[in-house]
Design a protein that fits this description.
Elements (H helix, E strand, L loop, with lengths): L2 H4 L1 H4 L10 E2 L22 E2 L15 E3 L4 E3 L5 E10 L2 E9 L11 E8 L6 E2 L13 H4 L3 E10 L2 E9 L4 E8 L6 E5 L12 E2 L3 E3 L1 E4 L2 E4 L6 E5 L1 E2 L2 E5 L6 E2 L22 E4 L4 E3 L2 E9 L14 E8 L7 E4 L10 H4 L8 E9 L2 E8 L3 E8 L2
Parallel strand pairs: 1-13
Antiparallel strand pairs: 2-28, 3-4, 5-6, 6-7, 7-8, 9-10, 10-11, 11-12, 14-17, 15-16, 17-19, 18-21, 19-20, 21-23, 22-23, 23-24, 24-25, 26-27, 27-28
């Protein structure tokens, strides 16, 4: 979100290239008529005005940055766009934090912090970030834009985090593993080996891995022998993997990533669509909660121009490329003061975190690129 959407209009004229960083261009498919009944949707999600926003910037926390070789106020300006999971009886939120190294949307360095709670109301934060640019093999991808916009699922080895590495020019979708949510092993860009490195310098982000709720744990789930991941902004695309580390985009006939969910004129997602939290395998199919941006022209009056809202789409559990249903209206949109004022002044609810905790589903989201809020519903 934020700086990335500003480049969307430029990307349509770009073709794939490994000689220079470029965003992936797509030929958008024709609209699909699908069932619009909503009995398959997760929710309804309801905000709790007594606890929101649950996280805000912290001007007092600092840590030693191995790249700058100095103390930095790593969550000084904004905290937003969180992932969420249950771990050891606590609700855990991994959130994007921006330091005070820049002005406006874009020039800060982002790092990922960890906050935990025993009740979902009061959160305690770690003093230092848990995932950040360091002197390692991934620094060329992460410095100096940082580590952004995490999503998380569980695996038989622990936790898998997808996140955006931003070097200041190109965003790359990356992943990391952890057993405790504190110490992370970075795996690098998820598409590094795909198509013999064809996508090594192309723009990619927002990885929502298909999961299944087992107890209070969203676990990565194979379909037809492979893992699936909805990813991207503009149109949402798909990728598959056998090991959760190396991913291959699902391609179209032209040899480009195949658009799976695209913008629609006259709706809340008329500007773009972007993958949200991990997709959920349900009895009705795969439910993908996604983010939609309203276009500045040709959109809807339901939300403000340029505003981000949340929708849901249903895909076949036998064929994750097959769209079965899609919401025509946002189920969560900018309405509260903390959602309509902040760094992104057009208004934003940007969903990325979905966790099961205390018999409820907790949907965490970024508000106006500035704070973190949550909405809940009974566990389905």
């Amino acid at each position: 979100m934020n700086r990335f959407c500003l480049l969307l209009a430029l990307s349509a004229s770009f073709s794939l290239s490994t000689s220079a960083p470029r965003r992936i261009a797509h030929a958008l498919p024709q609209p699909v008529r699908v069932d619009q009944s909503d009995n398959w949707m997760l929710g309804p999600f309801v905000r709790d005005s007594k606890i929101n926003p649950v996280l805000e910037s912290n001007t007092g926390s600092s840590f030693w940055c191995p790249m700058r070789k100095s103390e930095v106020l790593w969550e000084h300006d904004n905290v937003f766009n969180p992932a969420a999971t249950e771990h050891n009886g606590r609700l855990c939120v991994l959130y994007r934090a921006e330091d005070n190294s820049g002005q406006g949307i874009g020039p800060h360095t982002s790092r990922i912090g960890l906050a935990t709670s025993s009740d979902g109301k009061q959160f305690s934060r770690r003093q230092a970030p848990v995932l950040f640019p360091s002197v390692d093999l991934q620094s060329k991808f992460e410095w100096n834009g940082g580590c952004e916009d995490p999503r998380i699922v569980e695996t038989n080895r622990g936790f898998l985090l997808t996140y955006t590495a931003y070097d200041g020019t190109t965003a790359r979708l990356c992943s990391a593993f952890s057993r405790d949510l504190i110490s992370w092993r970075k795996n690098g860009p998820v598409f590094a080996k795909a198509q013999n490195g064809k996508f090594s310098s192309t723009w990619s982000k927002s990885g929502a891995i298909v999961s299944e709720l087992v107890g209070d744990h969203f676990r990565a789930q194979k379909i037809n022998g492979v893992y699936w991941m909805y990813w991207g902004e503009g149109p949402i695309c798909l990728a598959t993997s056998t090991d959760l580390v190396n991913w291959n985009p699902v391609m179209d006939a032209s040899g480009n990533p195949k658009p799976i969910l695209s913008a629609r004129a006259g709706t809340f997602d008329s500007g773009l669509t972007e993958a949200g939290p991990p997709a959920v395998l349900t009895k009705n199919g795969i439910v993908l909660i996604y983010n939609g941006k309203n276009a500045n022209s040709g959109g809807t009056s339901e939300v403000g121009k340029g505003a981000y809202s949340a929708g849901q789409a249903l895909f076949s559990k036998d064929d994750p490329t097959k769209l079965l249903a899609r919401s025509d209206h946002p189920f969560l949109k900018p309405e509260e003061p903390y959602e309509t004022s902040g760094q992104y002044q057009s208004g934003t609810v940007f969903v990325e975190g979905l966790a099961a905790f205390h018999h409820r589903l907790w949907l965490f989201y970024g508000t106006a690129d500035s704070k973190v809020a949550v909405a809940t519903c009974p566990k389905y």
